[in-house]
Amino acid sequence: MERLKEKLKRKIDEHRPRVVRLLKEHGDKVIDEITIGQVIGGMRGIKSLITDVSYLDPEEGIRFRGYTLPEVIDLLPKPESVEMPYVEGVFYLLLTGEIPTKAEIELVAGEFNKRKQVPDYVFDVIRALDKETHPMTMMSTAILAMQKESIFYERYEEGMSKEEYWDATYEDALNVLSKLPEIGAFIYRYKYKNGDIIPSDPKLDMGGNFAHMMGIEKPYDDVSRMHFLIHSDHESGNASAHAGHLTSSTLSDVYYSLSSMTNALAGPLHGLANQESLRFLRHVKDELNGEIPSEEMIKKFVWDTLNSGQVIPGFGHAVLRKTDPRYSVQREFCQSHMPDDLLFKYVDMLYKVVPPILQEQGKAKNPWPNLDAQSGVIQWHYGLREFDFYTVLFAIGRAIGVSANLIWDRALGYPIERPKSVTTDTLEEMVGIK
Ligand code: NMX
Ligand code: MLT
Questions:
Q1: Sign of the CA dihedral with 68 first, then 69, 70, and 75 last
Q2: CB atoms inside a 10 Å sphere around CB 431
Q3: What is the 238 CA–ligand 1 centroid distance (Å)?
C-alpha cells in the first residue's frame, strides 16, 4: 500500500507542470476585474487566491476536493457503529483528493498517534496565563510556544532546498495536527474542570480520543468527528485560512501560521460567532423564562438586536447566498438525536424568523444561516456549556484544511503574498472626483 507521503509526492509531481504551464503560457490572461466597491469592501469576491483543496459555490456551498458535504459523510470510512467519518480520513481526502480505504486511514492514524505527545513546557505556558484568559488565546499561545519544534525552521537553517519545503511542512503539519486535540482538551479540563486532566487513549481515533479527553460520553465522539469535518475547510479566502496562508507565504512555519489562523478565527464576525450565537440564544431563553416562544416574541427580539446596531450571529455570509450546507448537516443531526432540545427549538424558530427580517431590513446580502447558528446548540446539549470554548473546536477543525493548504502552497512554490494598496486620493483621481 502506498503511504500517504508517497502518494502525496506522486500527486505533487503530477500537479507541478500544470501550474508551470498556466504561468508560462497564460500568465498574462485577465480572469477578473476589480471595482472600487471591492477594494473598499474587504476584497469581496476578487479572484486572487488559488487552492485545490476545497471550492465554495455561493448557491451550493462547500465541496471538499469536488465532493459535497453529504457525499464526504457517505463515502469516507467510519469507525464501527457511528455515523460520522474518521477525522484522519478527512485530512487524507483534503490532502490527496482521494477517498482513503480503512487501511490507509489506519496508517495515518498511526502517524498521528506517534506524534501526539505534547511537550510539558506547552502546558506550563498555558498554566502561566491568567485563568480568565480566553481559551482561544490559550490555544494560539500554545501553538506558538511549540514553534521551537519546527522541522521546517530547523531544516531551513541548515540550508534545505526549495524542493524539500513541502516535505518539512508536511512533517510540521502532522506534528501539530496530532497535538491540537490534546491541547484543546487540556485547555478545557484545566480551565473549567479544576485541572482534572484525562490522559489520551492511544487505541481511539482522533474524534473518539478527543471526546474521551474532554470527559464527555457517547455520542460526543461522533459530534467531534462531525464538528472537525464540517469546520475543516471553506476555500482559501475566509479570514482564518487566509491568515494562515499569508503568514506561511513568508516561509514562516506551520506553527506560526496556525497561530495566525487561530487569531483570525477569534473574531466575532468569523469563528467566534458560534459562541455569540449561543450567547444570543441563552439571552432569548432567559428573557422568555425558558418558554417555547411565539414567533412574534422572537421577531421582536431580532428587531431589537438589529435596531441596537448589532448583527444576528450565525446569519449572513461573505460568499454563500443560501443556507450553509454545514448548517443543514448539523440540523439533521439535531433532528435525529435531540429533537426535543429546547435550545434547538429556538434555533429552528430563528431559522424561520430571521431570514425574512434580514431581507426586510435590506442590508445583509445573505439572510440565511451559516454553520455557527447551529454548532453551539449541539455542544450545549452534550454538556459542553462553557461557550467561550466553542471556537477552540472550530480551530482544531480548521487547522486540518489550512494545514493541507500549507503543504500544497510549499509544494507548488506559491510566493510571498504582496497585493498592492492604493490611496483614497488615487481612487478619487481615477474616477474624476478630485
Ligand atoms: N445581522 C445583521 N446585519 C448583518 C448580518 C447579520 N447577520 N449579516 C450582514 N449584515 C449587515 C452587515 O453588517 C453590513 O452592514 P453595514 O452595511 O451597516 O456595514 C451589511 O449587512 C452588508 O453585509 P454583507 O455584505 O451581507 O456581509 P459581509 O460579507 O460584509 O459580512 C458576515 C459577512 C458573515 C461577517 C456578516 O454576515 C455577519 O456579520 N454575520 C453575523 C456574524 C456571523 O455569523 N459570522 C460567522 C460567519 C461564518 N464564520 O464562521 O465565519
Ligand atoms: C468559514 O468557514 O471560514 C466561514 O464560513 C467564513 C467564510 O467562508 O468566509
A1: positive
A2: 8
A3: 13
Residues, the chain? 434
Q: What angle do CA 196, 197, 203 make, to 5 degrees?
A: 140
Q: How far is 163 from 249, CA to CA, in rounded Å? A: 15
From the list 212, 231, 234, 317, the catalytic residue is 317
E strands, 184-260, are none
Give the residue-averaged pLDDT of 25-49.
97
Q: Among 227, 234, 228, 229, which Cα is nearest to 60's? A: 234
C-alpha cell at 204: 481511539
d(CA 54, CA 312): 27
What is the b/e burial string over 101-130, where b = at least 16 CB atoms within 10 angstroms of the residue's CB? eeebbbbbbebbbeebebeeebbebbeebe
Residue 83 in 3-state DSSP? coil
C-alpha–C-alpha distance, residues 396 and 240, integer Å:
12
Neighbours of 203 (CB within 10 A): 9
232 lines ligand 2 (CB under 6 A): no
Going from the Cα of 238 to the center of ligand 2, the distance in angstroms, rounded, reads: 5
Task: Give the residue, by CA position, lying nearest to ligand 2 atom 4.
Answer: 238
Give per-residue pLDDT as tens, 44-74: 999 999 999 999 999 999 999 999 999 999 9
CB 211 within 8 A of CB 228: no
- List phi, psi (to 5°) of 116: -85, -5
Cα separation, 377 vs 184, in Å, equals 19
Rounded mean pLDDT, 122-137? 98
Q: Write the CB contacts of 366 (distance below 8 Å, at least 6 apart in sequence).
A: 315, 316, 317, 320, 321, 322
Check: CB of residue 258 under 8 Å from CB of residue 149. Answer: no
pLDDT tens digits for 330-343? 999 999 999 999 99
Cis omega (within 30 of 0) for bond into 219: yes
Beta bridge partners of 55: 63
Helix segments in 338-383, DSSP class H: 342-361, 372-381
| Per-residue model confidence (pLDDT) at position 287 | 81
Joined together, the cell numbers standing for residue 11 give 500527486
In percent, how much of the chain has pLDDT > 70?
100
Split at pLDDT 50, 70, 90, the class of 78 is very high
